[in-house]
Amino acid sequence: MTVQTIIYLSIVYTAGQAVMAISAVHDITDADRDGTPDNMTFHVVLSMVGLLLIALGTGGIKPCVAAFGGDQFEDHQEKQRSTFFSIFYLSINAGSLLSTIVTPILRGQDCGIHTQQKCYPLAFGVPAALMVVALIVFIAGSSMYTKAAPKGNIMLEVCKCIGFAVKNRFRHRGNEYPRREHWMDWADEKYDKLLIAQVKMVLKVLFLYIPLPMFWALFDQQGSRWTLQATTMDGNFGVLIIQPDQMQTVNPILILVLVPIVDSALYPLIKKCGFNFTPLKRMTVGMLMAALAFVAAALVQIQIDKTLPTFPSSSQSQVKFLNLGTTPLEITAGSNAPMTVEAFQTNPEYQTFTQESLQVSAGPAFEQTVPLEKRKRQTLLINPTTLTMEMVEDLTEKPEEGDNAIRFVNGMDSVVNVTVIEEDLVIMPSSVTNYTLVPMGTRKFTVTNDLGQTCSFSMTLGFGSSFTVVIPSNLQWVEDNCGNTVQQNQDIERNSMHMAWQIPQYFLMTSGEVVFSVTGLEFSYSQAPSNMKSVLQAGWLFTVAVGNIIVLLVAELIHLPDQWAEYVLFASLLVAVCVVFAIMGYYYTYVDPTLIEAEFAKDDWEKEKEKNGIPMKKKESIEHDYEEIKQTKI
């Protein structure tokens, strides 16, 4: 039944990917057009349907695939089965690495019909096509698989058995009744002892899994908190420029390197040293390494915080003053000391104020009161020629994804155009544009006035900076060079902490993942009864989902002022949970489901013989099977 389940749910998964590709088509057909709200709603609903199908497909496939792979090995092939789970996990991460590299390339293709648009239909469509190919290959090899006999809806049977045991126990709670060794024994009246024993094994492992979601709560922050951390770092590796979200590729790369080393070298070496490195001990070590990874992330964050600008608090406002005049201005703001601001430049540092408004004087005959906004950074554009002051809002955080935020101020008396990465910005006199996000590197900008004169200038950009660029009235109209007349006022400095400092935390987390996750998959299979392999695999995967919920709850309920403190909090929680898990693991008794099932089969035949009598040949065959399984395990 597992093969059919994998095939059917793979079709559902593929359909979800196809629906997602179709839902993204509006990005290239409706761009810059007046689409109706109903049309947009249709695409959103289609996206939700696609995600639902993908969730249903992947949720059904994952536990079945791992269990199906384990079923391909005989009982005496524990070493080969362990190697399979390592290769299985390695293959998953190889696919993840390939997807992380290829999908952004596909998305970056030009699919626009009316304008240039990112090609999300291609990014979703190619994985759907590859899933079809994988499904065809899987079906083609069906005759070579070892297939377990169908056992009905075992999940439903387990739930019914547990429900009857609970109900029966409460039904007799006030009566004089013989005490039973385990609460599941209250199902004896309706269910056979083999099923009850199998349910006991499953519940025993599921109880052990209660602390595990905390590991995944830390692990899954690689794609959220750690990526946000990377946006405040420098990704220039010389020959290679790494974007913040691309740092996630370090994890699958390390997986590909570490899994063979751990499986072929580390574990055998530990075994030769005489140390009994059991699966639960491995998982405990993995959790500790994940906690150390977050400690490393906290140390990196502390160093990053030292390089970040000080943004205003809830009771503060910060202001810069930009002189649009042709001569230096002496500016007095509130009770602050007078400052001299050069023509077409800002003052070097933001001034901090706590009042609601600010009295600003620019020269002896020019004075005005301007409003201030709390928790905001603002720039005051002062034009002594027109005797005007205009307050504009600045950034109060680093630009996203490591880009650079650039805006342009027109200090000329006529309209100018500035070309920024194939986009023309039209700027009115004494006006300022919105911020434009520009990737790192040397970028060229072209300025054109209403007379058709052009000139260009270049800016060498790093990661995460912010600039206010002033086009002055005395601009030099030289075609390939605007000279030094364009004023580049830096509001937020570029990131100075290098992304390479994240590699130690990725190494610790990936090392923990290798000894935790691969071992957990194998442990879930080995401790599960023959007809409940997928049940325990599903339980294992459920801990991942609960881990993600924990991240949401902690993020919503606990608002810490510093990011490094949140990292330390998560590390501390995982260490505490790890101690609990280590104690639970110490008292856990490993079982051999096949041996237990063989014992019950032998006992059942003995009882059946006493009751009805059975052929001696069949009895000898059962006893022989039991003894063979027992000797294999010994």
From TrEMBL:
SUPFAM superfamilies: MFS general substrate transporter. One of its GO terms (biological process) is oligopeptide transport. It is found in: Membrane. It is a multi-pass membrane protein. This is Solute carrier family 15 member 1. The keyword NAD does not apply. Signal peptide: none annotated. The chain crosses the membrane at residues 7-28, 40-61, 82-102, 122-145, 201-219, 253-270, 282-304, 535-555, 567-588. Belongs to the major facilitator superfamily. Proton-dependent oligopeptide transporter (POT/PTR) (TC 2.A.17) family. Its main location: membrane. Gene3D superfamilies: MFS general substrate transporter like domains. Keywords: Membrane, Peptide transport, Protein transport, Symport, Transmembrane, Transmembrane helix, Transport. One of its GO terms (molecular function) is symporter activity. One of its GO terms (cellular component) is membrane.
